[in-house]
Amino acid sequence: MFGAGLTAVLTKHYRGNAPPGVELVTSEAESIPGLRSRLAAYLLSATLGVIVVVFAVQNTAPISLTLFGWALVEVPLASVVLGALAVGALAAGLPLWIARSSLRSRMRDLEHRLFPDRHDGSGHQ
Fold first, then answer.
1. ∠ CA 39-42-47 to the nearest 5 degrees?
2. Percent of the chain beyond pLDDT 70?
3. What is the mean pLDDT of the chain?
């Protein structure tokens, strides 16, 4: 316990650049940036997926649905709720995806301006 705590303090203090003769040992999880947050996101997604499957299995009762004059009769409740979930995910995700692709494009342009010698024009760095 003391060794792990000392390693953590030294790693933060030296920011991974140990003085000569000192070897800082870090765990594999600490050496991969964002690994813990990605694992937490995967765990949350898996948990939500299980909840959705359980919901769909338990809510198969048929319902009638009317929307803008269209009538759907004998539609499973789970289908309606999961369809609404999918539409909501698309409505939220599409603008985020567009913004992300725009920012990536802008980042590539700035990298080309800052480091013109790294890019040979073939698309490979």
1. 125
2. 68
3. 78
